[in-house]
Amino acid sequence: MRIVVASGKGGTGKSTVAANLAWSRAQEASVTLVDCDVEEPNLHLFFPGDRTAAPVTRPVPDFDEDHCNHCGECARFCRYGAIAVLKDRVLFFPEICHSCGGCTLVCQHAAIAEKPLTVGKIEERHPLPGLRLISGVMNEGEAVGIPVIRAAKEAAAGDGTVILDSSPGTACPVIETVKGSDVCVLVTEATPFGLHDLKLAAEVVSSLGIPACVVVNRGCGDELETKAFCRDQGLPILMTIPFSREIAAVQNRGGLISRDLSDWRSAFAGLYGRIIAFEEGRR
Amino acid sequence: MSNNLLDIMKLCVTAKANDVDALAEERFGRAPYFAIFDEESGAETTVQNAGAAGAGGVGVRAAQTMVDNGVKVLITGQIGGNANAALSAAGIEVYEYRAGGSVKDAVAAYRAGKLSRIL
User: Fold this and answer.
1) HEC profile of chain A
2) Residue B107 carries which DSSP code?
3) ipTM computed for the complex
4) Which end of chain A is more exposed for a tag (fewer CB within 10 A), N or C?
5) Span A73-115, pLDDT tens digits
6) For range A109-137, the mean pLDDT
7) Is there a contact between A173 and A167 (Cβ–Cβ < 8 Å)?
8) CA distance A134 to A178
């Protein structure tokens, strides 16, 4: 079972939901939590402790000046502007290279091979007996986090229950995180901006063919427009987390409401059960 | 007069439109056009910047256009880090023009020695 937590708008509570869902599930069975927000991973803040790390690489061109005649074909092909060919040498800008491999294909002089470039790392922690936390961490200055997201997902590929925490937005990193999941939990807040981005995120998840349900965070009981949208789109709201000072205080010290507030442990266990039941009902 | 094309001095000004009389553009990688002046022959041409609307890497692609057109001196408002590296490696001199005038105004200011070299 692969559950992905996404949102559209940032700051709605994806990581809160993912971390608490994982913590409460880990009391019952083994679960793997994957932080796919590789530009700003934060789930480890809820679960401090020892970690191991392994590098993530992507292929980039390796130019052989002995074979290169500076024809410039590779630079003309590169739509990302990562290669400049001067009269006497080739300049390569790895940060803007997308690792498409096209330059190696168009080179008629066998002057371009590929070499690995480290673009980030995968950190692993075991904060609880039943919980494995995998965090993708992209190197600063890198333009594209996809290889790190892919590596983080691969690290959890053999695990039975996986909860993935997505980055905000609806662009490539979100799609890379969401695709292949069994069910998506969209976390929203009952603001106009929250609803606007919920609509965008719901459209992306729907076009990927993944059933989606909703958690409303910081609810004040008046989220009528959000409820109407969810009803129209067939998105069940499986939990509403109220706008509460008590919850905010736990969050602000890096705590977990499922662990630190007695009612919320059973609430998140219940949420997990409802997500599973929803997914089974949509098969 | 030299017959070596590479010795012919070519001057480029980033331009807002497809005209050597257009307003000078302050951006380099995202300049819509490049106005190129051949100081030897007096030829005036414009080159469209194919990468102007690209998502990224526009500075490097614009620098490649300078190299491909044999430009030795570039007059523009500002250049980014990657363009800086490419222009610097290619030995292209860069002068700053931000007075808001036309391409020809920028050329006149350069010839009068009024522009400061930024690369």
Assistant:
1) CEEEEECCCCCCCHHHHHHHHHHHHHCCCCEEEEECCCCCCCHHHCCCCCCEEEEEEEEEEEECCCCCCCCCHHHHHCCCCCEEECCCCEEECHHHCCCCCHHHHHCCCCCEEEEEEEEEEEEEEEEECCEEEEEEEECCCCCCCHHHHHHHHHHCCCCCCEEEECCCCCCHHHHHHHCCCCEEEEEEECCHHHHHHHHHHHHHHHHCCCCEEEEEEEECCCCHHHHHHHHHHCCCEEEEEECCHHHHHHHHCCCCHHHHCHHHHHHHHHHHHHHHHHHHHHC
2) H
3) 0.88
4) C
5) 999 999 999 999 999 999 999 988 989 999 999 999 999 999 9
6) 97
7) yes
8) 16
Residue in A207, A211, A254 with CA at minimum distance from that of residue A1:
A211
Q: Specify the 3-state DSSP secondary structure of B38.
A: strand
Q: Which of A81, A86, A96 is nearest residue B67 as measured by Cβ atoms?
A: A86
**8 Å CB contact of B64 and A85:** yes
**CA A189, CA A166: separation in Å to the nearest integer?**
16
Q: Which of residues 51-90 of A touch B (CB under 8 A)?
A: 72, 75, 78-87, 89
- The structural domains of chain B, with segments of one domain joined by +, span 5-117
Which tens digits make up the pLDDT trace of B87-107? 999 999 999 999 999 999 999
Q: Residue B55: closest CA among chain A residues belongs to which residue? A: A80
Check residue B80 and report its DSSP letter: -
Q: Are A65 and A89 in contact (CB under 8 A)?
A: yes
Using alpha carbons, select from A50, A47, A6 the residue that is nearest to residue A254: A47
pTM equals 0.79
Closest-approach residue (CA) in chain A for B91 = A86
Fold of the domain built from segment(s) B5-117: Nucleotidyltransferase; domain 5 (3.30.420)
Fold classification of A2-29+161-282 is: Rossmann fold (3.40.50)
- The CATH fold assigned to A57-118 is Alpha-Beta Plaits (3.30.70)
- Domain coordinates of chain A in residue numbers? 2-29+161-282, 57-118
Asked if residue A9 has pLDDT above 80, the reply is yes
